[in-house]
Amino acid sequence: IYLGEDNSEFIPKCRTCRRQAREQSGEADHHEGMSSDDELTPTEGDEFQKSKDNVLEDSRKVFEDVHADFCDIRKILLKFQEWKEKFPDSYCDAYISFCLPKLLNPLIRVQLISWNPLEQNLAELEEMPWFRAIEEFSDAENIPESK
């Protein structure tokens, strides 16, 4: 709803509708300035938590039937490091640096399912095992052959 020439008098229609609905229902727990979009009913909160728990439980089962050498990022990267050391020409010809992100993506995504950037800071992300493994692998690739 536009109330005049001054933009400060602009009130979004959806906000007005929600306010009127709260007034009619007699809800007194809303605080002006807080988003009513963020307010979940207890039922919605329980449903969301159940859904979140189901997703986390399913994510734990994704790699349960995979051999340990192929579901651990550190072990996978060690295999690539061995390949690079034993057969450098073949490793270079395979463009491994372009393939690794696609190869590791599913493993990393499963580990990030429970990570919430709004609740945790970037430092915690950098401490995750997969991040450390990739960082060590990248450092090992940048070491000259003479070392």
Automatic annotation (TrEMBL):
GO cellular component, one term: nucleus
Basic and acidic residues bias locations: 21-34
Keywords, alphabetical: Nucleus
GO terms of biological process kind: mRNA splicing, via spliceosome
Xref: InterPro entries: GCFC2-like, GCFC_dom
Pfam families noted in UniProt: GCFC
Record GO terms (molecular function): DNA binding
Record field: compositional bias (Acidic residues): 35-46
Domain GCF C-terminal: 74-135
Domain of life per record: Eukaryota
Region (Disordered): 21-53
Predominant location: nucleus
Locations listed in the record: Nucleus
Entry keyword annotation includes Protease: no
Membership in a protein family: Belongs to the GCF family.
Protein name per UniProt: GCFC2 factor
Organism: Xiphorhynchus elegans (elegant woodcreeper)
